[in-house]
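Kindly go through the entry underneath: sequence plus fold tokens. Please state briefly how this chain folds according to its tokens.
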Amino acid sequence: MPDPVTAPFGTWTSPITARQVACAQTTLADVLLDRGEVCWIEGRPMEAGRQVLVRLGPDGKRIDVTPAPCSARTRVHEYGGGAALVSQGSVYFSNFADQRLYRMDGNGPPVALTPPSEGAALRYADGLIDAGRRLWIGIREDHRAPDTEAVNEIVAVSLDGGDAGKVLVHGSDFHASPRLSPDGTKLAWLAWNHPDMPWTAAELWLGEFDGVAVSNATRIAGGPDESVFQPEWSPDGLLHYVSDRSGWWNLYRRDADGTCNNLCPRAAEFGRAQWGFGMSTYAFVSAHELVCTYIEDGVARLARLDSRNGTLTPFDLPYTDFSAVRASGGKVAFKAGGPHVAAAVVVLDAATGAASVAWSAASVTDDPALQGHVSVPRLIEFPTPRGRTAFALFYPPANAGFRGPHGALPPLVVKCHGGPTSSAAKSLDLRTQFWTSRGVAVVDVDYGGSTGYGRAYRERLHRMWGVVDAEDCAAAASYLAASQQVDATRMVITGGSAGGFTALRCLTHEDPAIRACFRAGASHYGVSDLAALARDTHKFESRYLDWLVGPLSDPEPYLDRAPVRHADRLCAPVAFFQGAEDRIVPPSQTELIVAALRARGIPTLYLLFDGEQHGFRQAVNIERALEAEAGFFQAEAFGKDAG
């Protein structure tokens, strides 16, 4: 290759276009295994975000299973997940348009199992098949009663169709992860109640099941200070689960005598924050051998665990992100990603450790145009104002065709992840590479409250949302500027949903030093009015702010931290991107702060996208939003002539 051209940071010509980024945003919602066949659910921006169940054919080619216009996507909890399953060659899925449960046998058409409901009021997710009794057992969310909160229950639906489901478990505000024992006599499930979220306090229950009703239900684990995740039965009929009772999400087994044992005590996270249904971090290869993923010291691994002695043996794989782990017949399938590959379906031989990629959304290896233009992140630990440290992924500029002028420093984009109980992406994301290949550095911050670092780290955000996250994002930027890795005069901040709130909070913060860090910002469907969010949001998150901020009966922190209440402090230009059909953060929230900024003459960009909800799924809108954000930051913060 020719020698790189010297050009100002932020002005480099990149082969990664907004169109390419949009087309590469095919999402991977789930991975499934049935009789050795690998299936997965793709979310396709080029088909207006339609979610398609795909099967890997014998010849290695992808075969669409669910036909257009069907979309395998459920609205239970709004975030969905667990929308489809495959059992003995038959497919069962929730269809987005009407939220009914459908069955497909072989190459036959979808046949509805549940009746229609007005306004798609009955929604289904997270199912299993009881083949002997010909039942689909899973979660039903019932919105039929007007002006009341939706009801979440575990129901049984006949595989012959015709009914909306017989209630098996009810009484808690939320239920998830029903799991039937191998002999069909016991049912385990998770439950939690307002104001808890499943990662703050969730319980594991076990009951006897005769095919008609669940009886003698007993709480096995979980409680006010314990989060339980993913119950599973081993082939020999022992109940396993993940609990953070030790301060870390570790794997436990309930033995025949009722005692519960930590299989591999470790300062590592074997569980995740359960934002969606159907999540899986481990699966059984045999009665005593599991394949599991865990995060330790900020690094994710996939390993073999011998439950008899706690021996954990990592596989040698080129990935840094793992989820949706499934196993069947000695084959393991999972979702994986890494610095050079976006979300991929990977199939692994449990005996040999040999792995192959069945499908990938984007890969440096498969796309020569990306080679030499991908920034590989490094995990940084930086000091925060409260005498602690926090973590982030730092992406320096990378472009084989360019280098910055001697002594010059690049601009910086600070990314605030959503959730906020979530974490920075660990896989190749062309949205990040879009910036770094143009000579702009990116830092993706795992502020206090993020997952992957234990319960105590998550609890830093307890009643401190808008405080700790904002401080940590500003601290990450200041740390990089002070260490001469970025240009302190050209730093911007951006985030989506909860991350959009953090971005706006930094820009309207009472501490002028935090506000002064950033020359501009962007909010993608971000929260600007905390009290409005607490009043208007959907059931799953309707009491989340009790934990993040405090009870709404004490309005002071809601007012103090709401960006819309402090627009008078905002002097930096801001861009806003909003879905017109967003029920989690409605457009009215965004429009309140936009109006306040425009009234003050602050440079403001507001784009409202029809047909989009919480998170953009249509390629044309993803492309337009990225191009608009880039143009806005270039004009308002980076400057065409900056070096």
Remarks:
- The chain has eleven helices and 38 strands.
